[in-house]
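Homework-ish question, so no full write-ups if that breaks the rules, but can someone show me the predicted structure for this set?
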Amino acid sequence: MNVATLDQLWVYLSGNPLLSLLATLLVFTLAVRVNRAVGGTPLLHPVTLSIIMLIALLLLVDMDYRTYFEGAQFIHFLLGPATVALAIPLYDHRERVRRLLWPLLLACGAGIVTAVASTLGLAMLLGARTETLLSLAPRSVTSPIAMGIAEQIGGIPSLAAGLVLLTGSIGCALGPWIFRLLRIKDPVVQGFTLGLAAHGFGTAHAFARLGAVAGAFSGLAMGLTGLLTAFLLPLITRLFGFS
Amino acid sequence: MPLIMGMSMLLACQFAGELVARGLTLPIPGPVIGMVILLVALMIRGKVPSSLRLTGEGLLRYLTLLFVPAGVGLMVHFELIAADLWPIVVTLVASTAVTLGVTAWVLERLQHGDSRRNGQPEGKA
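A: Not a homework solution, just the prediction itself:
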């Protein structure tokens, strides 16, 4: 019987999508366990934790992102149908959405202007380079929209996508503190706010932690913010004197 | 079969969304338009088919997991982020906090005003 050597096995496995797919699922399961063990703190959000562990793992075994993604893309692909599925909770809560339509739209406008203005203002004040600045601007928007916007206003699309993800995990970590500070308990407000400031991360967090109502409004906020920002942002950056 | 039926409906909406987005060269991603299409379809039909609910809610329950592969992509941007590390970190944290605060405050205020005007108790269960 021939026994393959360890590095022969590794060559086979590391070129196979099975490994990174399995690693992603196992690391995520582990991250959920760890998060639960430390009392479910949003500072160690399962997603943030999984990302950190997977990056460490990839650096450790010297696998590049493209190889990893070949396996992980099967999970990534499901984001599309999952986004479409957000229509279901929205439909379930359509009466409430209709009743709150104007407050929601106004809050969305206020949130977007705050997000973009404070981002550009602070980053300019702190001396970030122009490309970084313009990649930061769409950071509150779900990554596919943000990449398109960044390209349009002169940022770096892939950097914008990375900053969007960072914003998502920061938003989930800060959200509960801000809500406690402002004494906000309504799941509608919490969900909508998370979806606006932390896009899909916030929506996922709202579904997992705050329930279906918060999730529905979070998904609504994510969609609305994406749509409105695509129109508003080029105008705001022009106001700040870019392009 | 319900899982297959449900998944087909979701993918069909996404597909239609992609077609609209590409066809009209909109800056909006296909799945977001697909979400709007599905919402309109549900409103016309008047109820959520059980197969669609089974698949859709199953996917949404694991939504957090679906962000992990894209998130690992951050490793590609280490250098770009390191070049402007402090401006990026301070801006992200401060601006996200302000955005959360302003949005929550505005919505809470408007919603309070709304329910008071209609003479209803607040929308809290």
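Now go work out the reasoning yourself. Hint: Chain A touches chain B through 113 residues (CB under 8 Å).
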